């Protein structure tokens, strides 16, 4: 039971990360391949502040996430106006830097030996795992709700204009570079929050957690579910992590000697799924959802006409 | 002396990277997307060498050639089965990269399911330590270096001085015009994917013999290969060669002057810096 709650909590983190990637890539067209780096800053930042400096857990999460957001902002300043492929390579390199620094800065992070123990919050509660899972559900649910609001807002329309034709959006007087930077920094900070929230789940942090496989798992889930659909991230994580990691690995009756092959089989299936989706259904399982037309109060009608032209 | 050491060590260690970067660049140039699945050309090259060298017992240098050719053939097969249909469907560059990640997973974990995740070792040809200009190296390292430079020279000559290279550059720059001039995009693309696969396979065999053969060996070098390629500029085979040599020497230099572990960090930061100032804006 505890293991199931742990898996479900981790699944919430994955959904959150995929949702943020939906904002970055699906809405604004920024191919961020450094997801694990921002998540890792949150994770290890929280761990270091909590274990080495005695910060209370939630303060540690906030500080670590602020660092993740600041790093995201600097990275955005450096490469966000370059081509998509350059952004992709730079973010991938950034994540590799984070993973390497965690190994080299042994004094802070414990290096390959690991860093622990991060205490679980709400220690006095019996059902604290379940409450924590509830907290994650609320946070991730809020992210999905806010994404839908962003999509329907003026800000969301600027983002999709940037994604589809950045020069055109800029020529209409939108500060596209600053908008993208802001979105990137905020969403990277939120990836840091999710990393910080993961720290008490693992309790003991090892550099292996920062392998790029997390980035790819999140990307696969998002592309599978539908990168331009607000619920694509959630559905994609259900189909990948939920189906393989939770259902198959926990409940499938597999003899022990074959069980070690399961993770490889899983990643093989991810590969097959990803190829099939891009070849036959490039918009993902859910396809594209169109923004809801804003409910307009009578007095706002004049303003709406003017923004219509700007879209 | 430090500089000479760095150049020497850098060249020896960069030799597989040089080949990988040149092959990767060819595909990037021709089809305009970064083929992450190129990592598996490297890995499979090493595993084909295991097949010939360890399973069938051929001498290492004898195993090199068929391993390279099989890796090239696999590259063409993947192109025909997956990448060409995807390109014909008009999949965009970022989606092509994600597709290639999928292909990479499929091939790598398919390989693990068949041969298992264990690390394997090639039977090295007899190792002799030699002194070159007062620096120590093994005969194997020197042969690898010579072969890599020969292969690099052949690739360079092919791209800039042969009909095939001209056709490739024509197709990359203006596909319609190239086709109207009678270039068969089909044959040229297959030839380029074959050559790129061979280069990757050779790179894999050498990195395998210097260390060990693992299912992740290609994946581990693909990031640095990508960065080298992007920094070198889109599809410049010359640039990829120079950037790979510089990256190798820089890594060796940083390793010699600081803690070895920081070499990666400094190199990656340098790459991000280069991307910032002259990163492929038009890619």
Which short descriptors sum up this protein?
heterodimer; A: 311 residues; mainly alpha; globular; B: 283 residues; two-stranded antiparallel ribbon; 11 helices; 2 strands; transmembrane (chain A); LivM-like (chain A); membrane (chain A); transmembrane helix (chain A)
List the helices and strands and how they pair.
The complex is a heterodimer of chains A (311) and B (283).
Chain A: H1 2-27, H2 35-53, H3 57-79, H4 84-104, H5 106-109, H6 128-152, H7 154-164, H8 166-171, H9 176-202, H10 213-225, H11 232-251, H12 256-259, H13 262-280, H14 301-310
Helix pairs in contact in A: 1-6, 1-9, 1-10, 1-11, 2-3, 2-4, 2-9, 3-9, 6-7, 10-11, 10-13, 11-13
Chain B: H1 2-31, H2 38-55, H3 60-88, H4 93-115, E1 129-132, E2 135-138, H5 139-161, H6 163-173, H7 175-180, H8 185-210, H9 217-231, H10 237-257, H11 262-278
Antiparallel strand pairs in B: 1-2
Helix pairs in contact in B: 1-5, 1-8, 1-9, 1-10, 2-3, 2-4, 2-8, 2-9, 3-4, 3-8, 5-6, 5-8, 6-8, 9-10, 9-11, 10-11
Textual characterization of the structure:
The complex is a heterodimer of chains A (311) and B (283). Chain A has 311 residues and is an all-alpha fold. Chain A has a domain at 2-206. Helix content of chain A is 73%, strand content 0%. Chain A is built from 14 helices and no strands. Chain A has helices at residues 2-27, 35-53, 57-79, 84-104, 106-109, 128-152, 154-164, 166-171, 176-202, 213-225, 232-251, 256-259, 262-280, 301-310. In chain A, helix 2 (35-53) packs antiparallel against helix 3. The longest helix of chain A has 27 residues, at 176-202. Mean pLDDT of chain A is 85; it is low at 298-311. Chain B is mainly alpha-helical and 283 residues long. Chain B has one domain. Helix content of chain B is 77%, strand content 3%. Chain B has helices at residues 2-31, 38-55, 60-88, 93-115, 139-161, 163-173, 175-180, 185-210, 217-231, 237-257, 262-278; strands spanning 129-132, 135-138. A two-stranded antiparallel sheet of chain B has the order 1-2. The longest helix of chain B is centred in the first third of the chain and has 30 residues, at 2-31. The relative contact order of chain B is 0.21. The chains are: A mainly alpha (311), B mainly alpha (283). The interface between A and B is large, with 40 and 47 residues.
């Amino acid at each position: 039971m505890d293991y199931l709650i742990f898996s479900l909590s981790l699944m919430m983190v994955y959904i959150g990360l995929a949702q943020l990637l939906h904002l970055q890539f699906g809405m604004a067209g920024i191919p961020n391949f450094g997801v694990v780096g921002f998540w890792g800053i949150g994770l290890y930042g929280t761990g270091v502040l909590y274990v080495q400096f005695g910060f209370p857990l939630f303060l540690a999460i906030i500080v670590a996430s602020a660092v993740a957001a600041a790093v995201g902002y600097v990275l955005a300043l450096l490469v966000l106006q370059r081509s998509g492929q350059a952004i992709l390579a730079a973010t991938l390199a950034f994540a590799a830097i984070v993973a390497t620094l965690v190994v080299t800065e042994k004094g802070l992070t414990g290096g390959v030996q690991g860093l622990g123990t991060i205490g679980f919050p709400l220690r006095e509660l019996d059902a604290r795992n379940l409450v924590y899972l509830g907290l994650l559900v609320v946070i991730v649910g809020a992210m999905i709700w806010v994404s839908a609001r962003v999509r329907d807002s003026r800000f969301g329309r600027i983002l999709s204009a940037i994604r589809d034709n950045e020069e055109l959006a800029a020529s209409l007087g939108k500060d596209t570079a600053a908008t993208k930077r802001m979105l990137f920094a905020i969403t990277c900070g939120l990836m840091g929050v999710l990393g910080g929230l993961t720290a008490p789940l693992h309790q003991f942090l090892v550099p292996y957690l920062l392998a790029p496989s997390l980035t790819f798992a999140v990307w696969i889930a998002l592309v599978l579910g539908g990168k331009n659909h607000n619920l694509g991230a959630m559905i994609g994580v259900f189909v990948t992590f939920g189906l393989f990691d939770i259902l198959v690995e926990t409940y499938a009756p597999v003899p022990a000697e074959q069980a070690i092959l399961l993770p490889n089989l899983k990643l093989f299936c991810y590969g097959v799924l990803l190829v099939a989706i891009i070849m036959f259904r490039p918009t993902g399982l859910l396809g594209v959802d169109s923004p809801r037309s804003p409910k307009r109060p009578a007095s706002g009608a004049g303003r709406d006409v003017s923004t219509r032209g700007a879209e | 002396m430090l500089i000479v050491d760095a150049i020497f060590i850098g060249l020896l260690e960069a030799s597989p990277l040089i080949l990988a970067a040149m092959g990767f660049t060819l595909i990037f140039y021709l089809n305009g997307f970064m083929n992450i699945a190129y990592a598996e050309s490297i890995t499979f090259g090493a595993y084909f060498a295991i097949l010939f060298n360890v399973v069938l017992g051929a001498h290492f240098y004898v195993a090199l050639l068929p391993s390279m050719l099989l890796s090239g053939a696999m590259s063409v097969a993947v192109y025909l089965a997956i990448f060409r249909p995807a390109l014909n469907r008009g999949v965009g560059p970022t989606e092509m990269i994600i597709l290639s990640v999928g292909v990479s997973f499929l091939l790598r974990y398919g390989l693990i399911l068949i041969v298992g995740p264990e690390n394997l070792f090639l039977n090295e040809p007899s190792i002799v330590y030699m002194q070159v200009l007062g620096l120590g190296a093994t005969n194997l390292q020197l042969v690898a270096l010579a072969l890599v430079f020969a292969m690099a020279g052949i690739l360079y000559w092919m791209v800039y001085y042969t009909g095939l290279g001209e056709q490739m550059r024509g197709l990359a720059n203006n596909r319609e015009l190239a086709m109207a001039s009678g270039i068969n995009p089909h044959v040229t693309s297959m030839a380029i994917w074959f050559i790129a696969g061979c280069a990757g396979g050779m790179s894999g065999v050498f990195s395998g013999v210097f260390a060990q053969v693992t299912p992740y060996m290609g994946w581990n070098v693909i990031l640095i290969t990508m960065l080298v390629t992007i920094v070198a500029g889109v599809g410049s085979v010359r640039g990829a060669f120079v950037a790979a040599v510089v990256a190798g020497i820089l890594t060796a230099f940083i390793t010699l002057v600081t803690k070895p572990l920081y070499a990666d960090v400094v190199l990656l930061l340098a790459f991000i810096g280069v991307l910032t100032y002259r990163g492929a804006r038009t890619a």
